[in-house]
Amino acid sequence: MNYVDRFSYILISDADMLYQRPFSLTLNLLKQETNFGAVSYQHSPEHISAGEFQDGPDTWQRKQSERGCSLFLETKRLEQMRPLPIDNLKDFDWWVCRDSPHSLQSRGEQIAVLPGGAYHLGWRNGDSTWQTCETPEFETFKQ
Questions:
Q1: Contacts of 137 (CB under 8 A, 6+ apart)
Q2: Is the N-terminal amide bond of 83 cis, ω within 30° of 0?
Q3: Chain centre distance of CA 44
């Protein structure tokens, strides 16, 4: 039995993430809301919010893209995005969100982001692939 048959959901996480909220919030949201292809507990302000929504006491953000350090998604969805860009793993988030032929954006899906749900303890400036020439969203963020 392979992992796709064994596990319905997968967490792609950097090793230095500090999770503040239970993963059950993610599972409930992904089961209830079909317009979300992934959930992130890591909120990166440079990735623009497309609005907010309430789920219980929590205020979530809807986004088209988010950093790949903390992404929950269905295991079968990750398999659809293979082969992954292993030559530059910093591009993993863009692959999932935007660049893969089966990316979230190509399917009209968004990412539900819970600000404060997790903290990336080891993140440093320069870790991101947020480059002006490659990322049209950056121009809007600068303003």
A1: 46, 47, 48, 64, 65
A2: yes
A3: 10
Parent domain of 80: 3-142
User: How many structural domains are present in the chain?
Assistant: 1
Q: What is the DSSP letter of 32?
A: H
What is the dihedral sign for C-alpha 90, 76, 22, 115? positive
Global pTM reads 0.81
Taking the CB of residue 130, how many other CB atoms lie within 10 A of it? 18
pLDDT in tens, 26-72: 999 999 888 999 999 988 887 889 999 999 999 999 999 888 788 99
CATH number of the domain encompassing residue 7: 3.90.550.10
Element (H, E) at 58: strand 58-63
Bridge partners (DSSP) of residue 60 are 53
Q: What is the DSSP string of 78-126?
A: HHHTPSP-TT-GGGHHHIIIIISTT-TGGGT-EEEE-TTSEEETT--TT
